């Protein structure tokens, strides 16, 4: 089908279940090709810690099969469908293609770190296999990493192999009352610097804490620190961690159920999933810089922000319709750099704005060469531009 | 003997040697350029010492800009370049050729920045792996990937080979612990990839570079992730009457939700060799040994070990030795860590590096014995059972050409066996020149063509580390 399209000079838009179709510049294509027909788990032996599945397999099916065996995808894939106002489910291929990781990324790595192998169809219509289903593999070039987070611009992923791990026995989240974003960054850095193996570190300003946490803490700024594992370990680690947090903090403990609810809300950006199209940015910065980037932007424009990944992942919503890309990217550059993805915005703004972070010209040029070595005629996902270059200043 | 082929040196490049050396001398300080035949000797090979070639010249730049100037010059002159860290590659990844300039990063060995709050460390590419952990240990941090050569090997080499180590079951390999890098492209362009943020934009070029065996660019700086050091670590020795039972025990430990920080396996020949050398207190009346290490506070380790020991007992473990002190723990590891050296004292050996799915370990082990016995040789097995990375050591006599050839053939058969069992040719040593010609066993021609097309996006003329990784007869470079 791909070879035929290429031969006829046609272009194809790749889609899974469509949960993230609203991200990126609109794709212009002659036809769409969906992976949803390529469904089913191909291989899963729990003691091997690997699951192999066709790309169109619903994520929910994978998670259910893993849960039956007490295992999980440790990178904790996020679900942006409510944020983007859709009811679409997610496919495992879509998770791989967008490198979709959640709060546990700070401890357990991203989706790309767990992705062991892929099969994909390149722009020549050839079926390519790379990686495999073993934990350690340095045989040849690691095209698996290229495919992870390529947003369908290189090829059509048909099969993925993910590393899985035992699901933690239980979890507890310490909800620390107080500090504002700058002090919270320091507090989270101290927590991550202990041997407590903190697997989630987020800071929520008061109003957002009210939307995420159901208890009486609502409305007060809160820093959340998650501990997971065997109950014995968690108790030990709380004992180790608490003295490091500094005096004068009121610390509450969220039990497993409350903890799960809170982290799912943070993971899925629930505080901004309000059915609107107000611009939402996902900013990835050095953990200690996230609060400064947000303060800089919010000093110049109306909006609100909260922080995951020890402060390094900033979820920022801007009031009004203008995503203010230049302001966001200037502030980010002024605080050590990183990248900003415009996850949600209105249709018009989406077409006009660099949704993905522009890259320095030599990097963008290299990415373009790589793209054309895999999809020489630009069959796939034209228009979506995850590697556009920085516009030269006038 | 089944010699690994080298490319015929380009006579045109050889004829221009003096002019090329003069050109290099204009770009770097005198002390950074090595051309004296006696001083070139240490660069003739890496840790894959069976093969040697004297390079045209060696450059040891002190700055990224010097690397850029030298690389651009070599590219313009059509002179092959072999990037080199400390030269510890076991697969011949840094072996030069007569018409190549070696660019070594060993002089670029400064730690540039330690950032505890962001938990990162930025280093020049020639810093050794262990130097990072040593530098941050007092503050309670470490750098996780721990290849056995960590005392000597450089971060540049670790990135080039995507190195692993005994503890990667829990902490991952280099690619999982690398946040950013400064890279010199073939035309001398310097690019920064990634940084202190956890996610980078665009295509994952850093992930592609990691493990590319020096064929895409030269790394001059790296930003790596630091982790908080666990409170303590404790290994336990388990002896089993059969490898199958030991394997089943590993499966059940993992199935019970326990991820130890390391699970090392040794078979009877390996136990005997290591015990004779290290006097580690290994039991000699068992068929297989597991070293399982857990981490955490004393109470956490007690809890986890109690779970592990209960599982081992259910599997009829023959002997259990818990380390009661740091000295005993070190003793247990000493035996394992001296496996290669101890083996080298009793015989010559070649070390394989295949990886298999965990469920295939017992099958592959059985077949390995059968294959090696079929060639009339002996084998000792020590490997990372937690991640399926096997290291059969095939023993032979290097002075007997017939035995040497048999050892190589047995090695190739074992690697094919690993691939056929769903694994791969190399888990951590790299392809280099050693396994180049086996690549078509793991990949189709289409797969390799796609990899080479991506390679060509960086280096269309096959200047960078040519004749490595891809089968010579098959690669564009070989064909040209």
UniProtKB/TrEMBL annotation, chain A:
Pfam families: FAD_binding_4 (PF01565). The lineage of its organism: Bacteria, Pseudomonadati, Pseudomonadota, Alphaproteobacteria, Hyphomicrobiales. InterPro entries: FAD-bd_PCMH, FAD-bd_PCMH-like_sf, FAD-bd_PCMH_sub2, FAD-linked_Oxase-like_C, Oxid_FAD_bind_N. SUPFAM superfamilies: FAD-binding/transporter-associated domain-like, FAD-linked oxidases, C-terminal domain. Keywords: FAD, Flavoprotein. One of its GO terms (molecular function) is FAD binding. Residues 1-167 form the FAD-binding PCMH-type domain. This is FAD-binding protein. It comes from the Bacteria.
TrEMBL record, chain B:
One of its GO terms (molecular function) is oxidoreductase activity. Keywords: FAD, Flavoprotein, Oxidoreductase. Residues 51-229 form the FAD-binding PCMH-type domain. InterPro entries: FAD-bd_oxidored_4_C, FAD-bd_PCMH, FAD-bd_PCMH-like_sf, FAD-bd_PCMH_sub2, FAD-linked_Oxase-like_C, FAD-linked_OxidoTrans_Type4, Oxid_FAD_bind_N, Vanillyl_alc_oxidase_C-sub2. It comes from the Bacteria. The keyword Coiled coil does not apply. Pfam families: FAD-oxidase_C, FAD_binding_4. Its cofactor is FAD. This is FAD-binding protein. It comes from Roseitalea porphyridii.
């Amino acid at each position: 089908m791909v070879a035929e399209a290429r031969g006829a000079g046609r272009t194809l838009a790749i889609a899974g279940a469509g949960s993230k179709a609203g991200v990126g510049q609109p794709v212009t294509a002659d036809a769409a090709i969906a992976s949803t027909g390529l469904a089913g788990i191909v291989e899963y032996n729990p003691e091997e810690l690997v699951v192999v599945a066709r790309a169109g397999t619903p994520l929910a099916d994978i998670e259910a099969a893993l849960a039956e065996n007490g295992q999980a995808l440790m990178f904790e894939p996020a679900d942006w469908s409510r944020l983007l106002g859709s009811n679409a489910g997610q496919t495992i291929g879509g998770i791989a293609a967008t490198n979709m990781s959640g709060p546990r990324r700070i401890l357990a790595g991203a989706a790309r770190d767990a992705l062991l192998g892929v099969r994909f169809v390149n722009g020549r219509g050839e079926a390519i296999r790379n990686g495999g289903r073993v934990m350690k593999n340095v045989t040849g070039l690691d095209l698996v990493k290229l495919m992870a987070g390529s947003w369908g611009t290189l090829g059509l992923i048909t099969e993925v192999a993910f590393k899985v791990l035992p699901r933690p026995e239980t979890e507890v989240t310490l909800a620390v009352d107080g500090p504002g974003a700058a002090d919270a960054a320091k507090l989270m850095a101290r927590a991550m610097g202990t041997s407590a193996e903190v697997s989630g570190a987020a800071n929520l300003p008061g109003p957002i804490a009210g939307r995420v946490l159901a208890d009486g803490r609502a409305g007060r700024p809160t820093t959340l620190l998650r501990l997971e594992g065997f109950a014995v370990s968690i108790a030990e680690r709380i004992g180790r961690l608490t003295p490091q947090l500094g005096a004068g903090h009121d610390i509450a403990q969220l039990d497993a159920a409350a903890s799960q609810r809170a982290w799912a809300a943070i993971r899925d950006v629930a505080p901004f999933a309000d059915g609107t199209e107000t611009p939402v940015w996902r900013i990835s910065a050095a953990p200690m810089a996230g609060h400064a980037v947000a303060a800089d932007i919010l000093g110049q424009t109306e909006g609100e922000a909260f922080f995951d990944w020890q402060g390094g992942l900033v979820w920022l919503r801007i009031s009004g319709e203008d995503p203010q890309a230049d302001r966001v990217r200037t502030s980010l550059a002024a605080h050590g750099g990183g990248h900003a993805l415009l996850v949600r915005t209105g249709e018009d703004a989406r077409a006009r704005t660099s949704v993905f972070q522009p890259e320095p010209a030599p990097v963008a040029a290299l990415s373009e060469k790589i793209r054309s070595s895999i999809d020489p005629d630009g069959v796939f996902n034209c228009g979506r531009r995850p590697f556009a270059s920085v516009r030269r200043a006038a | 003997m089944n010699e690994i082929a080298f490319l015929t040196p380009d006579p045109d490049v050889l004829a221009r040697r003096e002019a090329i050396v003069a050109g290099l001398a204009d770009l770097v300080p005198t002390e950074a350029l090595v051309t004296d035949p006696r001083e070139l000797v240490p660069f003739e090979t890496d840790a894959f010492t069976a093969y040697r070639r004297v390079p045209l010249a060696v450059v040891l730049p002190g700055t990224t800009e010097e690397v850029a100037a030298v690389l651009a010059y070599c590219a313009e002159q059509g002179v092959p370049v072999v990037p080199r860290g400390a030269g510890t590659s076991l697969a011949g990844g840094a072996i030069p050729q007569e018409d190549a300039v070696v660019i070594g990063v060993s002089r670029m060995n400064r730690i540039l920045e330690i950032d505890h709050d962001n938990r990162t460390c930025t280093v020049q590419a020639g810093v050794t792996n262990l130097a990072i952990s040593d530098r941050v240990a007092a503050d309670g941090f470490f750098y996780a990937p721990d290849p056995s050569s960590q005392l000597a090997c450089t971060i540049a080499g670790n990135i080039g080979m995507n190195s692993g180590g005994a503890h990667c079951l829990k902490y991952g390999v280099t690619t999982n612990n690398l946040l950013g890098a400064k890279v010199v492209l073939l035309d001398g362009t310097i690019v920064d990839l990634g940084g202190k943020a956890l996610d980078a934009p665009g295509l994952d070029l850093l992930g592609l570079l990691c493990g590319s065996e020096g064929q895409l660019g030269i790394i001059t700086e790296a930003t790596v992730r630091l982790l908080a050091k666990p409170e303590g670590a404790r290994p336990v020795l388990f002896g089993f009457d059969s490898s199958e039972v030991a394997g089943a025990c590993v499966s059940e430990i993992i199935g019970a939700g326990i991820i130890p920080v390391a699970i090392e396996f040794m078979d009877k020949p390996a136990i005997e060799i290591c015990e004779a050398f290290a006097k580690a207190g290994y039991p000699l009346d068992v068929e297989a040994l597991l070293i399982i290490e857990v981490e955490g506070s004393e109470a956490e380790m007690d809890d986890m070990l109690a779970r592990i020991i209960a599982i081992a007992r259910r599997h009829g473990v023959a002997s259990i030795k818990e380390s009661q002190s740091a000295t005993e723990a070190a003793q247990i590891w000493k035996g394992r860590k001296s496996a290669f050296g101890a083996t080298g004292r009793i015989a010559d050996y070649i070390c394989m590096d295949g990886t298999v799915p965990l469920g295939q370990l017992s099958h592959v082990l059985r077949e390995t014995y059968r294959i090696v016995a079929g060639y009339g040789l002996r084998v000792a097995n020590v490997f990372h059972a937690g991640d399926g990375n096997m290291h059969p050591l095939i023993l032979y006599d290097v002075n007997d050409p017939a035995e040497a050839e048999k050892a190589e053939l047995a090695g190739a058969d074992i690697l094919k066996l690993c691939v056929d069992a769903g694994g791969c040719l190399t888990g951590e040593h790299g392809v280099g020149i050693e396994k180049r010609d086996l690549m078509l066993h793991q990949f189709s021609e289409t797969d390799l063509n796609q990899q080479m097309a991506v390679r060509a996006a960086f280096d269309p003329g096959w200047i960078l580390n040519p004749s490595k990784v891809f089968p010579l007869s098959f690669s564009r470079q070989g064909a040209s």
